[in-house]
Design brief:
Blueprint lengths: L1 H6 L9 H7 L1 H11 L5 H10 L11 H5 L5 H6 L6 H15 L3 H8 L7 H10 L1 H5 L3 H6 L8 E9 L2 E2 L4 E10 L5 E12 L5 E13 L4 E9 L11 E9 L2 E10 L1
Parallel strand pairs: 2-8
Antiparallel strand pairs: 1-3, 3-6, 4-5, 4-7, 7-8
Helix pairs in contact: 2-3, 3-4, 4-7, 7-9
Length: 257
């Protein structure tokens, strides 16, 4: 592990260190906790990234997956890290855990310093899956727990008839309906048509904003519709929903031919 700590500066030892975590979780975590206070950001990042319970392209760490508190001292130590490289890893670690122990993550981040802008960044990105699911406690932590009090003046998806390789544009206009500022998390969900004709939904981030009293705001976003190794598109009517603070406030569609 001393060698991995050295070599991680020149690449990343996140995959190799997992062998030690699998064979002797508690001993390995004790060493990695000391890494979380190292002066080198690559070493601090290894403490968080290497202990992620569901690191992509690697095996799962069953002990940490079952009990995320085992790695909690590492996350706490890095909860306000000045390095964006480290903060992204901590957020991804948290996001992994939300898929198994959402309540634990929400309680943990609630104990962190919400006034620190580094911490707020980690929490916002670490709760992204819960926010996409409309989890009200996660939205409340981000200051957007209340039902949106808005007037939706327009929502459109253009063009509404496309082929693979085309780009769609989502546009909407929001107006405040109250005499107080409100925090809004605006997302959109595409219900992709599957080969069987059923649909599979995926939520995308659009905008986080503070809507001032009597304010009007226009939002626009473009998305390229093309196949990936992880997603194949099929012909049909794809519904697009606009979501504000977890509530579906409008819907439209595009037709893929």
């Amino acid at each position: 592990m001393d060698a991995l700590k050295y070599f991680t500066r020149f690449g990343s030892s996140e995959f190799a260190v997992r062998e030690f975590l699998r064979d002797d979780t508690h001993c390995a975590l004790a060493i990695m906790e000391t890494w979380s206070t190292d002066s080198d950001e690559a070493v601090r990042r290894l403490a968080s990234e290497g202990s992620r319970p569901r690191l992509p392209w690697s095996f799962r760490l069953g002990d940490i997956e079952g009990d995320p508190s085992l790695a909690a001292p590492i996350l706490d130590s890095l909860s306000a890290d000045p390095s964006a490289y480290v903060r992204k890893s901590v957020a991804n670690h948290l996001n992994d855990v939300t898929k198994m122990h959402a309540a634990w993550v929400l309680e943990r981040v609630g104990q962190w310093d919400g006034d620190n802008h580094h911490t707020r960044w980690i929490v916002r990105h670490g709760l992204r899956t819960l926010v996409k699911q409309g989890n009200m406690q996660a939205l409340a932590i981000l200051g957007a727990g209340g039902a949106p009090e808005i007037v939706l003046e327009a929502f459109s998806v253009t063009p509404q008839r496309i082929v693979i390789g085309d780009t769609i544009t989502l546009s909407c206009k929001l107006s405040s309906a109250v005499k107080a500022a409100q925090r809004l998390v605006v997302d959109y969900r595409i219900r992709y048509v599957k080969r069987s004709g059923a649909t599979a939904a995926r939520v995308f981030k659009l905008k986080e904003l503070t809507l001032e009293p009597c304010q009007h705001i226009s939002l626009s976003h473009t998305q390229h519709i093309r196949d990936f190794t992880t997603r194949t598109h099929y012909a049909g009517r794809h519904v697009v929903e606009l979501i504000v603070n977890g509530d579906v406030v409008a819907n439209s569609f595009f037709h893929l031919v």
